[in-house]
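Pipeline run #58 for the internal structure catalog. This entry was flagged by the ingest filter as a single-chain record with no existing model, so it goes straight to prediction. Upstream metadata was stripped on purpose; only the residue string is passed forward. Reviewer on rotation: M.T. Logging verbosity set to normal.
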Amino acid sequence: MSTHISLGLFVVFVFQYIFRIIYRLWFSPLAGFPGPKLAAVTSLFEFYFDFLKQGKYCFKIEQMHEAYGPIVRINPKELSIVDSNFYDKVYVSGNTRKTQGYSQFASGIGFDGMVRAEKHIKKLIEEKKQLKVTTSEPAIRGQSTLFRYMIHESGLPEADLTVERLTKEAQILLGAGSVSTARTLHFIIFYLSKNPSMRERLEEELKDTLAGRPGEWPTWSKLEKLPYLQALIKEGLRYTQLWHHASTSASVARRGTALYERTRWESLEDPGRGK
């Protein structure tokens, strides 16, 4: 009996996957865009280059653009665009074309829940409704918080003080203020650990500048004058953006059309291209 159940579940799984392949190749909203069929069918294509090939999918995407043109389907749910002239048509305000959040942007970097921020915001909104908080009340942990100020003192309209809106503001602050910085540092530290000669050169450059620590730390103006350190930081920023090819800048249209006019396409050497 259990064998029949297992076989039945396996058959259901196979048929479900076949139907998913058919949908992604011929009925998906992205079905008409060029790109490798394997990338359109499964995210395992991207997984292979990002994990087994150690983050080299960004280079594969460049090759795909060379082969297929400025718009390429890079997985079942995403397109890659490398024409800077189309940027302003993709990223628009809600009055031009309705868009919605992209869940994959948030996954894995702590944005999907934002539980602590959401609880804090809900508490502040509830306090305001009950008129229990005044501007003279001691702030949480002895200092005023940004969201306490926004809710009680900023004078913003009530429509801008919803839990959903303020939680998204918290996401922006987290992304711009910590996640992007941490990701860049991860890249720099990783490549320094993989290349001892680079690490030794950086240590040599920092030796005199850091001689006074821990009692005295160098100023930013001194650090700016260290050419190799600055080169590492800039290369880390460049490579971070190159690697994080799609999920950091996704735009999902709910309705409406963004018409792409192919005014120029030469090659990836085209200085006007963007992503």
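catalog note: The chain has a mean pLDDT of 77.
catalog note: The chain is about 55% helix and 5% strand.
status: ready for reviewer M.T.
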